[in-house]
Design goal:
By secondary structure, this protein is an alpha+beta fold. It has a seven-stranded mixed β-sheet. The chain has one domain (26-341): 4-Layer Sandwich (Deoxyribonuclease I, Chain A), CATH 3.60.10. α2 (65-82) crosses α3. The protein is globular. Helices cover 23% and strands 28% of the residues. The longest helix is centred in the middle third of the chain and has 25 residues, at 186-210.
Length: 342
């Protein structure tokens, strides 16, 4: 071995041991943040405080243990496929009955390979379906959470507000939403979604008033398109700009919507599942701060997640289909995700 090799060998070993590559730069760490409306994730136990009769053994849907665990396995298959190397760092959910179904999801499926922590607060929805969040405790640190009422005028699902500490000791403010559905008609229910959005915007403004650099991620099934009044005007979620402003909100799925993409099918594709972020998470990465670059989100869809017999084209492969009954699929929504780079 030459004198040159001997002299520089300790330095090379030190770089390898410390996980540093190139000119003393640490390798980038990428965390995937997912939102998934999992469509009626109910257990098989009768809860006297909820209208869960539709999803019980012996009901018209004949929901049972075999179908329940198949549903868990299907959902886990999707989440593993989104990030097969590391598993997602954060997953927000809609239409979850209780904490136990998520505990079953992360403890009895391949998701058990990661140390997921479950956060769910029981809300006022008559059917008992709530929003929830799981996160990897080896990647992020729990700070706090609370349920935020999404309306002062009518009964609806709460917004789940979670604070997590990221790998760079940065605080992430996450809001998981499931706004008022369009059941009864889009026009008739529109004011309720506008109220959901207006209340959330007040909370966001309060955070910015306390900390102009607050890093905010809003995810959810908003039951409206990115261009609709609730999202674009009341929440003020803008299309991504070349020079994003720190205290503005940007919809990472606006471009996908304008290009005709969607996450659920009703006569045509709709893009109700969205992730919206504060401007300080976009653009060039700064020290001790995550960045989303390129500044866009993705809809996750594989052929095995689609029902070839659905509508005019393959559509989300759900658990039950109209007139066909139980078909054993995944959900009537496709999941969406973004990548946080540290």
């Amino acid at each position: 071995m030459s004198n040159f090799s001997v002299r520089f060998l300790p330095l090379i070993l030190l770089l390898l041991a410390s996980g540093v590559s190139g000119y003393g730069q640490k390798e980038k760490q990428q965390l995937k943040v997912v939102f998934y409306n999992v469509e009626n994730l109910f257990d098989t136990i009768d809860d006297k405080h909820k209208n869960d009769n539709e999803f019980l053994p012996g009901s018209e849907k004949d929901w049972n243990g075999e179908r329940y665990f198949r549903k868990l396995s299907n959902l886990a298959k999707v989440l593993v496929a989104i990030d097969s190397l590391n598993l997602p760092a954060i997953v927000g959910f809609a239409e979850v009955e209780n904490r136990q179904v998520l505990e079953d999801l992360v403890r009895t499926t391949p998701l058990q390979k990661a140390p997921y922590q479950v956060i769910l607060e029981e809300g006022p929805d008559p059917r008992g379906i709530d929003v929830a969040l799981i996160f990897r405790s080896d990647k992020l640190t729990y700070l706090s959470h609370q349920a935020v009422a999404a309306s002062a005028k009518f009964q609806t699902r709460d917004i789940l507000y979670v604070k997590l500490l990221g790998p760079a000791k940065d605080t992430l403010h996450l809001f998981v939403n499931h706004w008022k559905s369009r059941s009864g008609g889009e026009e008739k229910t529109r004011p309720k979604r506008i109220e959901n959005a207006t209340l959330l915007r007040h909370v966001v403004d309060s955070l910015f008033a306390m900390n102009t650099s607050a890093r905010i991620l809003i995810m959810g099934d908003l039951n409206d398109e990115p261009s609709d009044e609730s999202v674009a005007l009341a929440l003020e979620a803008l299309p991504v700009d070349k020079k994003p402003e720190s205290r503005e909100l940007y919809n990472l799925f606006y471009n996908a919507y304008t290009e005709g993409e969607g996450t659920l099918w009703y006569r045509d594709w709709d893009l109700f599942d969205q992730i919206i972020v504060s401007g300080n998470l976009l653009g060039k990465k700064k020290k001790n701060s995550p960045a989303i670059n390129p500044p866009s989100g993705s809809i996750f869809s594989e052929s095995w997640m689609l029902d070839p017999e659905g509508a005019k084209e393959p559509t989300p492969f759900r658990s039950y289909a109209y007139k066909r009954g139980y078909i054993g699929g995944f959900s009537d929504h496709l999941p969406v995700y973004i990548v946080l780079t540290y």
